[in-house]
Amino acid sequence: MKTFRIGGIHPKENKFSAGQRIKTVALPDRVVIPLAHYSGMPSRAVVKKGDFVKVGQLIGQADGYVSANVHSSVSGRVSKVDVQLDASGYKRPAVFIDVEGDEWLESIDLTTDIKRECHFTKEEILTKIQSAGIVGLGGATFPAHVKLAPPPGKKAEVLIINGVECEPFLTCDHQLMLEKGEEIMVGITILMKVLAVEKAVIGIENNKQDAVEYLRKIAKSYPGIRVVPLKVRYPQGGEKQLIDAILRRQVPSGKIPIEVGTVVMNVATTFAVYEAVQKGKPLMERVMTISGKEVQNPGNYLVRLGVYLSEVVNQAGGVPERTGKIIGGGPMMGRSLMNLDVPMAKGSAGIVFVPDRDSVRGQDRNCIRCAKCVTVCPMGLEPFLLMNQSEREMWDEMEQNRIMDCIECGSCSYTCPSNRPLLDYIRYGKTTVGFRIRSRKAAKV
Predict the structure, then answer these.
(1) Residue 291: phi, psi to the nearest 5?
(2) Confidence of residue 38 (pLDDT cuts 50, 70, 90)
(3) I need a surface site. Which of 50, 112, 183, 343 has the fewest CB within 10 A?
(4) What angle do CA 44, 101, 176 make, to 5 degrees?
């Protein structure tokens, strides 16, 4: 069974919401749609207090190439354009809309018919993807139109579709493949057309055997697309790990997948591409997982952007009584939430409730030089060394030791017998070193 070759762990999967059909979350009285919930420059508000907007209407204009449009997820009246605390704990610009009915733009095709034939040119497709504000929905939230336009001299040979979903608890991508497999296939053909490739590979871990079998069945009608089952191993959903598992190609340090002739797209992003190109629907809702060992109704929920996470949780049975921590995303790479009064964003893949007994971090002790963190690091780094250098603010040394290659998967902290806060210090060091690198580049301009 295929898998990546360097490092990796196998945490308990805890896929309690697997097999739960996608449920649509009811609209609240108000939504707060962030204008900065993706990688890149925040968008610029193009509506003002008192404006009436429809579902799918542009409310935030991309401010630069590496930026993304933002659209209204509801119909109603703009009450204000202000700042709102987001999942990161920072106040960000946002558009506040009081909901009035559910009136969609006439240009959006609301039928359930699957449109398989795409007659648009590559340029037209890219324009539609960019206009729809599509970003990577696997976690990075990088604008899709940028990813699909390789730099001069670089050419993709194969498209990889990421259906791995290796994070414990999360099942939204799994269920999306089961319920929207045909649309995903059409989305893949659209992406293949944009990249001018004849081969596409869908990578799925073999704990989702139903998705493997279903997509293999319908892939027979789509030339050039094949499904590859992968051994269950975290963090196989990382781009570089997935490329290694499927193509046996190593992306060089500091480089991106196009350097080895491939582009990787998440299955949810691929479905969003289908909806944007074939249905004229911008990215204004997504599927997310609500789960945890004591959650009453763990499941997969279709949520409009801007809905407060507390509203979604209420439909999953509310916050469990003995909750000690709430995580936005998965338990390995997600971040703790201060509260649930934050709006749904494009990158919100899930909420995981951690019971009291599991939420207390063990007392950290001295490093015993066991090298487990080195063994499991999927990027071949030395986490114990990077933590020590971060503690001592040895920024130059950290850069030389490839701190920027860290994908922040948390495998090192997970496996450390001394409970060392390895990832915390590495994230701190990576942020500082990244700032220093950008400052150097800016000084040269």
Answers:
(1) -155, 175
(2) low
(3) 112
(4) 75
